[in-house]
């Protein structure tokens, strides 16, 4: 598999700018004092209608994702659920985001026939965007850290995308923008547009789906929903929907090691940064992303990466499903919240997300050799989870 200049070969046409789409027909005419410029292009509009139809049809073909129960002792009076986003066609929560971003880019006139879509991503968003790019017939380039799992790279290429690797995750943004200029393509920029591309008021977004699926449960309005932050778009959608619908549900965001969302949220400093990239693929960022809406959420937890690993392994023991590290980060926080509710004698429900399948990370979160290489010891956190599930008390 050859790599030229860090990017696998991709035949892309050259054009002058990123968000100044070329049009093949410009008609200018003067009628009296009126100057009339018509840039409509029947061929492009026909392509656009068909591209939007294909993306919307994908949603119609996809049944809603499942809401799984994590087994807890009945006497606690608390139900813990995981919204299983791994059942999307591209296997992750990012399928929803990619669909929204493509519709947003198409309807804004940013995505054009024959021109590549470029994205900065640590993997799962790129897999989903490669899928939609192939669906509408445009090239796709993923700009991603060199440490991204081999399975994610394989999936991007399976869907027809190309991988452009950077050694420093902090340079993904600039590299993506540069590639868009060089190729005349569109830099999707999930970290800016995630929170605005999704209709947070409803329209079958993830928040509306959760509440609809809980309607017949014994606690239909959850006490807490726990999310993790990569772009911040999911937490923004959840929190805005809760406020819009006037629910009492609180939203907690769990943040991994080597990420600055927690520090930015607690200090109120939007310019906070960190020097290292997150080991939990898909979440954690070296800067406060524009799509993160700190004022909308109620609580944040800083979760050690070793605790996230312990949590996904506990999930497999509990329900027989492997999941990625982002799921473990959220699950650890959800279990702590359940422990608080038990201690307070509160009944109710808690929801977190199963973001993507664990088979993408067999060489990482399920590999003892990788844990040792990273200096991570999950054993104390495993003992904490086991003790809590056995006694209902969170060890100090």
Automatic annotation (TrEMBL):
Its cofactor is pyridoxal 5'-phosphate. The modification N6-(pyridoxal phosphate)lysine is found at residue 94. Residues 13-24 have a biased composition (Low complexity). InterPro entries: Cds1, Cys_Synth/Cystath_Beta-Synth, TrpB-like_PALP, TrpB-like_PALP_sf. It is an enzyme of class 4 (lyase). A cysteine desulfhydrase that generates hydrogen sulfide, H(2)S. The H(2)S produced by this enzyme modulates the balance between respiration and glycolysis, and contributes to redox homeostasis. Probably eliminates toxic levels of Cys (which can induce oxidative stress). Belongs to the cysteine synthase/cystathionine beta-synthase family. Cds1 subfamily. This is L-cysteine desulfhydrase Cds1.
């Amino acid at each position: 598999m050859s790599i030229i200049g860090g990017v696998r070969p991709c035949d892309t046409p050259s054009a002058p700018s990123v968000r100044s789409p070329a049009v093949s027909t410009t008609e200018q005419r003067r009628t009296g004092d009126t100057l009339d410029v018509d840039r409509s292009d029947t061929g492009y509009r026909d392509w656009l209608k068909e591209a939007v139809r294909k993306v919307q049809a994908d949603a119609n073909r996809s049944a809603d994702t499942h809401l799984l129960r994590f087994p807890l002792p009945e006497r606690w009076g608390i139900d813990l659920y995981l919204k299983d986003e791994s059942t999307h066609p591209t296997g992750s929560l990012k399928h929803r985001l990619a669909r929204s971003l493509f519709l947003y880019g198409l309807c804004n006139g940013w995505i054009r026939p024959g021109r590549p879509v470029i994205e900065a991503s640590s993997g799962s968003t790129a897999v989903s965007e490669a899928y939609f790019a192939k669906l509408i017939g445009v090239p796709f380039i993923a700009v991603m850290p060199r440490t991204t799992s081999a399975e994610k790279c394989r999936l991007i290429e399976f869907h027809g995308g190309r991988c452009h690797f950077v050694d420093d995750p902090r340079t993904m943004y600039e590299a993506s923008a540069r590639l868009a200029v060089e190729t005349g393509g569109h830099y999707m920029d999930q970290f800016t547009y995630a929170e605005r591309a999704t209709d947070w008021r409803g329209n079958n977004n993830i928040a509306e789906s959760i509440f609809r699926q809980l309607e017949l449960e014994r606690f239909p309005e959850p006490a807490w929903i726990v999310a993790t932050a990569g772009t911040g778009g999911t937490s923004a959608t959840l929190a805005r929907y809760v406020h819009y619908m006037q629910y009492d549900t609180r939203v907690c965001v769990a943040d991994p090691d080597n990420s600055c969302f927690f520090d930015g949220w607690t200090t109120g400093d939007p310019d906070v940064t960190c020097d290292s990239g997150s080991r939990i693929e898909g979440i954690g960022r070296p800067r406060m992303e524009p799509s993160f809406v700190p004022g909308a959420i109620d609580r944040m937890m800083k979760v050690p990466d070793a605790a996230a690993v312990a949590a996904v392994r506990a999930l497999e023991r509990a329900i027989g499903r492997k999941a990625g590290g982002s799921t473990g980060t959220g699950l650890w926080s959800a279990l702590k919240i359940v422990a608080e509710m038990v201690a307070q004698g509160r009944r109710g429900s808690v929801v977190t997300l199963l973001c993507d399948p664990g088979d993408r990370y067999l060489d990482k979160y399920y590999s003892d050799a990788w844990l040792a290489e990273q200096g991570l010891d999950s054993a104390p956190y495993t003992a904490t989870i086991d003790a809590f599930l056995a006694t209902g008390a969170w060890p100090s």
